[in-house]
Amino acid sequence: MNYRILCILFLSGYILTSCVPTKDLVYLQNKNSNTQATINQIVAKPYRLQTADILSINIKAIDPKLVEIFNITAGQTSSSEQELYLKGYVVDDHGNIRMPILGEVNVLGFTLDEVRIKIEKELLTDHFTDRAGIFVNVKLAGFRYAINGEINSPGTKTLYHDKISILEAVANSGDITILGDRKDVKVIRQFPQGAETFSIDLTDSKAVNNPCYYLQPNDYIYIKPLKQKSWGTGKTGIESLGTIITLLSLATTTYLLIKK
For the whole model, what pTM was predicted? Predict the structure, then answer.
């Protein structure tokens, strides 16, 4: 009798510890149930350009022919990554982009607004007057990030938005698998002085206050596996029970064969 009770207790504990609890799967929970969660969205700092970034620069004027030479992507309806790479302005290893007439323009460490102002100033100082009606628009040619680990669709992604949260990036990649650790998602971010690693708990509502909640271009996201994956058990109680029944059946069959 004691042996049966011990087996039942062991199996119950095994099932409970091997499956993934619901609280580890739900995003943005209020973990302090006694008080109402206060969420103060942080103000993301403007992104500063780095080498290998690709810019889409569009220049307009009252007479479109005056600025036609600058708009190397004009008239293109497709926005594939390959086309953007071939026809966009790539920031080289020296932090410069090469533009018609203007030549080398240093943009390393500049924000998009600062690049726009710089190009407008150079055009109006040396090539045009105010009467030309120069209008400059500068954007990143796609918001790129990489995501890997316990995610349903890993790889390098490109979204055409100015601002992207980590939850949007996760959703765009098919969501984190049931065996992914949502409590300790790593974000590796490049800075001029080197890379820095951030950690964010996506199950906590306070995640929106984390400095890496809003991504920056070229961020790398890694979702590590839960310990349940290394155990090789089922993801749910039913799957774990099925694994146990299979093992018990195998053990019983082996015992009966040996006994014969």
Answer: 0.74
